[in-house]
Amino acid sequence: MTGGTIFALASGAGRAAVAVLRLSGPGTAAAVTALAGRLPAPRLASLRRLRHPETGEVLDRALVLWFPGPASYTGEDSAELHLHGGPAVIAGVAEALVAAGARPAEPGEFTRRAFVHGKLDLTAAEGIADLIAAETAGQRRQALRQAEGALAGLYDGWTRRLTGLLARQEAFIEFEEEDLPAGLDDAVAGAAAALRGEILAHLADARRGERLREGVLVAILGAPNAGKSSLLNALAGREAAIVSARAGTTRDVVEVRLDLGGVPVTLADTAGLREAVDEIEAEGIRRARRRAEEADLVLVLFAADERPDAGTLGWLGPDALVVANKVDLAPAPAVIGDRAPLPLSLRTGEGLEALRSRLIEEAVARAGLAAETSLTRPRHRAALTEAVDWLAELEAAPLPELRAEALRAALRAIGRITGRVGVEAVLDVVFGEFCIGK
Fold it and tell me: Where are the transmembrane segments (predicted)?
């Protein structure tokens, strides 16, 4: 459903001191007038008694704000009703707005209208969605940079350069017989190759922006009774997993979400690695191996008082952090596999803060928290990869017409990221992620 005048609750659901209903669309002025009697001065809060337009029943005493377009979030006539936050008040005012000709908004419809009216581009819209969903300070900073146009600025700059190159290439085609500067065609190819290198460098980011947005996955692996569940509980600060001296207690993957140095981390406790005693444990071990294969970091836990088992040693890959638990019972080995383990005693707490600090370092290294412009979504990566491929086609193209077509295709690919070009195919995907009222 598109068009018309929409409204939605912009504040959190449930009982609260204040609830904010926002409106946008051509009938906003009429709807506000129907409930509040008259429009307040633009962008000034005015206390009004709200009435049902059909029955005249008083619904609430509320603050009313009026934002005439285009100087509003959506670019349309908009308003906000700051109500008392009781569910009955909200329901009554919503019913009155429907009676006044408005309708409930779809998810993301306010921000979609802002995009349609040129108030922001698709990357900024995605940044707003990420800002609403941010769990950590690192996510908040990245989302705010994107919402304020950091990605759009970078991609618009590349678009302008590609447009200039295409204009020069077209000039070479149209006026080949004229007195054009020598080497114009070669200059276009050289500039396109330089731009391709910049985009490739942007792509070679080890998915840091995506990891910061989605979270870093850390899987804890080890033999039964090495202390995996105890470690999960210690890092989480609560009893998230069952701890027992009986081997094989953990049958399924148990996850907790942590904030480590501003990076969201999903910590996964897994079944102990050994020869399974039944089909349920076998399935738990299969899930443990699969989670380790998916993880950004594998935390391999050994018991200092036991000989390292071959099955666990097999997971000492480049993305593994080795920990020797139970150093209160025996000293940590100098080397496990090919590296020195971090000593830990979950019984006494020795080494726990050092391990936490190391996990923060590893999470930050994988996600990145610098004030840099990073890719945050697979669709950005796919579009830029397509642009790079087209610029590679340009380098190999034997005819100037084919080089011009490659430049046009690269322009379309980058334009899809910001929504400047070929936007319709991605609108529903982008705005479908939003909550109602945004």
Answer: none
